[in-house]
Amino acid sequence: MVMADNFNFELVSPERLLVSGSVSEVVIPATEGEMTVMANHAPTMTTIKPGVVTVKFTDGKKDRYVVFGGFADIIPTGCTLLAESAVPADEVKSDEITRRIEAARAELAHAKSDDQKFGIETYLAELTTLQGIVVPV
Amino acid sequence: MPSLKDLKNRIASVKATQKITKAMKMVAAAKLRRAQEAAEAARPYSQRMSAVLANIAQAVGQDDSAPRLMTGTGKDQVHLLVVCTAERGLCGGFNSQIARLARDHTRKLLASGKTVKIVCVGKKGFDILRREFASLIVDRVDLREVKRVGFANADQIGRKVIGLFEQGEFDVCTLFYSEFKSVISQIPTALQLIPASAPAAVAETTGATAIYDYEPDAGAILGDLIPRNISVQIFRALLENVAGEMGAKMSAMDNATRNAGEMINKLTLNYNRQRQAQITKELIEIISGAEAL
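YS: structure for the whole thing
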């Protein structure tokens, strides 16, 4: 087996730059399913759903971050993840997710078109899943 | 002519004012540093956002599928102005500069027969614009309770604007804020948000023309991206505003402190003169009294 190459990964939220460095592997929760990005990935642009990003650094260290939506720009030599909001997984508070779930529910009550309802329901389901992952029951 | 006691009181009160302005200046300086840091931390995101947006816009550009937020409604009859100002005063001409730019813009639009709607972000802009355009203000956003402007605040405003657009409430949206150039110079700026002008494609070394896989398709991503970009622009404007406000407040308070210093010097001189005059007068009274004996 060939050793995995490294590539540059950046995790950016509007408030700050969370990660910038050389990594060997990143798992991102893309809208159409989780995907693992490694070096020399085909150029891809994808949207992100709320979920957990797992970053494996070159030295084998692993970091997990919780992101709430956003999108990723993947090129063979790097990957940039623009998250609407991102927090290190061990700092995330369950009431933060609960708050978002409540906000989404309130929005659902006001949604007019079916499309809108569908969008919010999907978002809600993703958030609930995320809550299950992050908060140990 | 104020009496000696009056002068003494005034000196004391000016000194107290000077203490306050000095403290405010110091607070503004500390907050300015934080605001500048926040603005800098937000920069990578908006830069990458523009780069990505430029890439996608290029890919989608020719299609008719480009979202309406980007192409606009094809009219420019109804204008929405989002005017971002500070929540507090005491920062020199900062708020009035932004308000003046918005006012001139409004007048020009009204004169050419357009309809104008205004959304005020921040209390000070609302106070100024209310005098002239009270009937045009459709909404106001209050950030007074917000200690630190977060992306959530900007996103909320962004959603509001997009919601209005989807209801067909306006055709063109312009954002007014103050660009932070330096501590002493903030430039009031108007930025068109809708129709979104796609940033000019940046020639990247990574080969921006690479053929991308889009997941879901490019149109859907673009549709998701543009509202987000609007929020990002608003966020940036808010951050620049905070930095500008603090910069303006710092120099305003610096001036005030200096003025207070000058005033104290003048008053003290006056006070000493009067004191000496009184002493002289009393001496003359004693001497002439003694001579009369």
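YS: worth flagging: Residues 218-292 of chain B form the longest helix (75 residues).
IM: good catch. Also Chain B has two domains: 4-22+253-292, 38-250.
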